[in-house]
Target: ABC transporter domain-containing protein
Amino acid sequence: MQRGIRQGIESQILMTSAESVLRNLCLRIEPNEKIGIIGRTGAGKLSLFQALFRFTDRSLITGHILIDDVDISRITLKLLRTHISIIPQQAVLFSGSLQSNLDPFNHYSDGQCWKAFEDVQLKKFVSDHSERLLLPIAESGIKLNAGQRQLVPVARAILKQSKILLIDEATANVDPATDTFI
Model:
């Protein structure tokens, strides 16, 4: 999976917990293919995301999830999660600086962070503050409006160059301009 990840996903999942909504799911996503999974609340979209991230207890799953023909149970969590990003309905932000929210492990240069903010149209907002990349952010995203809060995980995914991007109603709580952009 480390070399030239193609991001092809093939999964055959059977969730065996009593409350599971995913049963007998067979899904194949080809490299560079974009799909939408649509369903009412409780239909299993989040369960699928959790299975991809290996948040689901393996004993509850019968079957396999393969990425590039490799069973994800054979991949380290660190490697797996390095290649997957999620843009949730409610942006997850941490107390700290804007830069630490974008790059919590300091893997990227300031220039790369600025480029990610530019790509999501936040560069002007960040540069207009005297603290710039060190702009303090609370967990609630104080100092950011709803659209700006939602763009931070998008910038994070761009910065990571994630091979697999999961989007969970990312535009549900944003203004029309941000919705169009995302």
Q: What stands out?
A: The longest strand covers residues 9-15.
